[in-house]
Amino acid sequence: MAVADEQPPALTKFLKAVTTVKADDATEILTGILKRREIKSSRNVAKAVTKLLLRFVSQNRHTKLSESQGLIKDVRDLGRYLVAAQPRELVIGNIVRRVLGVIREECHESNTLPGFADLPLGGRLSRASSVGDESTDLGSNPGSGTATPHSGRPFSRDGVEEDIDAMSRRKSKAYIPPNLRNLTRQGSIALPNANFGENNLQHALFSLLTADGIPLDYSPKLKPVESKEAPVEDKDIRGDVIEGIKELLEELEQVDEQVAAHSETHIHANEIVMVLGSSPTLQAFLMRAAVKRKFTVVMIEVYPNDFHETQEMLRAPSKFTTPTGLKQLSKNSPAKDEPLTTAEMKATLASIGVESILIPDSAVPAVMSRVNKVLMGSHVILRNGSMITTAGARNVARCAQEHAVPVVVVSGVYKLSPRYPFDPDSMLETGESSAVVGWADAGVVGNAEIFNPTMDFVPGELVDHYITNVGGYTPQNLYKLVEEQYGTANDNLE
Amino acid sequence: MATIATTSLPKLELQVPTPVDATSTIGDASALKPGVVQLNSGVFDIREVYLTHLRSDHDLTMPVAAIKSLVDLVERINSQTTAEFLDVLNRGINALKESIRNPISLSAGCDLFLRFIVRFLRHSQSMPKLVAHLKQSYKLFDSRAKDSRKKLAKLGSHFITDGCTVLTISFSRVVWGMMMDALRNHIRFQVVTTEGSGGKRLASMLREKGVPVAIVPEGAVGYAMNKVDFVLIGAEGVVENGGIINVLGTCQMATLAKAAGKSVYAVCETHKFVRLYPIDSYDLPVTQSVINFTVDDTEEPKPAKKDTIEEAERIGNDRFVDFTPPTLLTAIITEAGVLTPSSVSEELLKIWF
């Protein structure tokens, strides 16, 4: 989880600049900010990158459908440039891939014959949506069914065919968990194309037998028109792509609320919940739960990176904020969309009647036996179910495992990276060591090496559940969400 | 399988086979030797064809050899109906499976082939088209299988990092490919391998390339475990619950690795995914007498029947296998990506059912 910046002035400056300067200049500003690590929380990075991409696409010379490959290439190159500026910030890659997904989707949509989308769905669509509605399984609340109209953007690997299920889902504007879609997919109606709905693994399985020249779709009329060469159908896709990116921005704004919608099913009355970190998502989650539930929060101090904020909190409890969307809870303070520090968070919780206990990091094992649940945020989630988050999290997760306490992670789906952690250590960051021991303390500084890692790698085995804005997932099932979000296109940005 | 397939086929020309055919098939079947299928036009020794394929190309995997033999069979079927076609195909598959001692790996190819044909026919493709398609792609099977191994090696070699020590068991072509890929990327690593079933071959091949290799006896796996960074094993087959079937000793290696907190990566091409759901090693459709109780001190356990030693080693007939449950595996590396055992399980169930 991002160690919250008190105020990221660099971000404010960039967001101001990005609307006025040229995209190239904005890119330079952002890479500078990223290289200097002036924005730390992954939310802020995501926001900045999305804004930049919005600017970039709207100024790009490729606007027509026929030029979409050029646009994809340009965006990918920009993505590589940004990722190279801060390779440890995996969120950059996530956002770029999402935008690439938006562009591809627009291409396919425009490329398909009119009426094709309505063709084979019939009963399957209605069946699928009804099952989807019943099944808002883990976060069974009315919000989750309709929360994510644009969460899934699947597209096929070769860039020609459109996934019917994706279309059906967009049409129904309801999120259907992928596993249920797959169950219903087997149903009554034969698909016109055997490759439809096929994922990477299935494709790989049958690739041995399927000739490249002869795809399994037999009916030529279902193939998209070759409009890439036909100037008649060459339509302007820029507007649609910009629309898609704006939706992504909206999603970033709404993430907290959508995740918080699951809180009631995860936090029960009189529970003791241990909380690590201070991400706005986590805070919104607790705040929403507090509306209906009476529970106790055990806050971990997260020394040394949130240490001073905690001290400040003890001295001046007046400074508090509430997350967006929960304004009704706070009477006297305006909503601010900035990440909160641990100190601010505790103050807010106390102000709405949640019993809060603050413990030092070293007391985690001592308290763990009394805790019902551990909640934490994340910086980045990786496709194999592991995650990168605040330093100290692995300790807490391991301790929870020892006491058989479930570890629940709340996070926006934009933090889910399709990358596999071949070398997790290379993804971790180290902060300034003066936070641990000040430079003035020559007695220590001269005699010891001081190290302040800001991040921790938590393997998937230690996490029990991920709650995202598109529903709950176990670490083992995250791969499905990755497929859902990024499709099977393989964009190598690293 | 056949019944399910035929009922769901859209364009069925249902013709009852002529009585002459039926009687001749039944009449001759009893006299046939294992691995021979009776066709309208004569007999087809699928076992021999399969073994010939394996002998002619040492790089060929068993599932691909099985698929090639089945295509050979399909070319000889001159039936007009889908039902008869599938019947002969099923008989061919059964004959092949029954005639080979350890049919796990080849049955992966057979199931994949059958599934492909059912999918192909379900989408209203006619039979002549199917046969034409198979004939056309016949020559490509080898190269595609090799391509997937290459892709797999490239993907998997990321796991081998500079300065690491890898523990492996026996000789696996995919593991070898991964190591070669890592070597090409100038990665320095060392390997610990067990001495049995091809381990020595791997060691000498790796040493030739300048990789330091330690050969340890099977009993020293637990001893060596703390000196290695992770375990990398090939697989004869990946089953539906996400576990793997591999040479005897894999399960204990994975258990020891789990106990020591080391990652276990299984490496396998997707065409080795088998339609089996074993709970433990005794559920495998292999006859192998690993545990022999006896009071006779002089009686030595008989080695498994083998054709020739070299051939048997390649075909995998001489070696015992065991089943490693999915809970012991960290990930399964395939050309479709690095998958968790549970995701493999789910995807496989989705394909077959």
Automatic annotation (TrEMBL), chain A:
Task: Enumerate the InterPro entries for this protein.
Answer: eIF2B_beta_subunit (IPR051855), IF-2B-related (IPR000649), IF_2B-like_C (IPR042529), NagB/RpiA_transferase-like (IPR037171)
- The signal peptide stretch is none
Q: Where is this region: Disordered?
A: 127-160
Q: Which domain of life is it from?
A: Eukaryota
Q: Does the keyword Hydrolase apply?
A: no
Q: Where is the composition biased (Polar residues)?
A: 127-149
The family database entries (Pfam families) matched by this protein are listed as: IF-2B (PF01008)
List GO molecular-function terms, semicolon-separated. guanyl-nucleotide exchange factor activity; translation initiation factor activity
What the entry lists under Gene3D superfamilies is as follows: Translation initiation factor eif-2b, domain 2
What's in the keyword line of the UniProt record?
Answer: Cytoplasm, Initiation factor, Protein biosynthesis
Q: Which GO terms describe its cellular component?
A: cytosol; eukaryotic translation initiation factor 2B complex
Its subcellular locations are: Cytoplasm, Cytosol
The family line of this record is: Belongs to the eIF-2B alpha/beta/delta subunits family.
Subunit composition and interactions: Component of the translation initiation factor 2B (eIF2B) complex which is a heterodecamer of two sets of five different subunits: alpha, beta, gamma, delta and epsilon. Subunits alpha, beta and delta comprise a regulatory subcomplex and subunits epsilon and gamma comprise a catalytic subcomplex. Within the complex, the hexameric regulatory complex resides at the center, with the two heterodimeric catalytic subcomplexes bound on opposite sides.
The protein in question is named Translation initiation factor eIF2B subunit beta
Which species?
Answer: Arthrobotrys musiformis
Q: Which gene encodes it?
A: GCD7
From TrEMBL, chain B:
Q: Where in the cell is it found?
A: Cytoplasm, Cytosol
Record GO terms (molecular function): guanyl-nucleotide exchange factor activity; translation initiation factor activity
One GO CC term, this protein:
cytosol
- Keywords assigned: Cytoplasm, Initiation factor, Protein biosynthesis
One Pfam family hit: IF-2B
| InterPro entries given in the database record | eIF2B_alpha/beta/delta, elF-2B_alpha_N, IF-2B-related, IF_2B-like_C, NagB/RpiA_transferase-like
| Quaternary assembly | Component of the translation initiation factor 2B (eIF2B) complex which is a heterodecamer of two sets of five different subunits: alpha, beta, gamma, delta and epsilon. Subunits alpha, beta and delta comprise a regulatory subcomplex and subunits epsilon and gamma comprise a catalytic subcomplex. Within the complex, the hexameric regulatory complex resides at the center, with the two heterodimeric catalytic subcomplexes bound on opposite sides.
Q: Which family does it belong to?
A: Belongs to the eIF-2B alpha/beta/delta subunits family.
Name-wise, this protein is Translation initiation factor eIF2B subunit alpha
Which organism does this record belong to? Answer: Arthrobotrys musiformis
